[in-house]
Input
Amino acid sequence: MIRQLHRMGVRSSMMYTAGIASIGLTAASWFLSKNYESAGMDRADRWGLFVGEWAPTFFAMGVALRMEEMQAEKGRVTEEWEDPNMERGIRMPSRAGV
Output
């Protein structure tokens, strides 16, 4: 699932931003529910907890996507530095003296 999200263009920074936004949304939903609903403090607490549970999920997905990004970067660097002659068993002279 993480690899598919990465292929779709979702990046770790987006998930970290969503995690931070959900923390702010938690405070806002609790405050609004407490002040503008007649259901009382229990309802406000439930709203705050409901939205607050999203943040760890977003942060965990951000970490997983960052690991996926690092693997993609590692693969790209490996491809750039691979010597195409090594597959055919051809050894190139050393450039140590150059």
In short: Residues 2-81 form one domain.
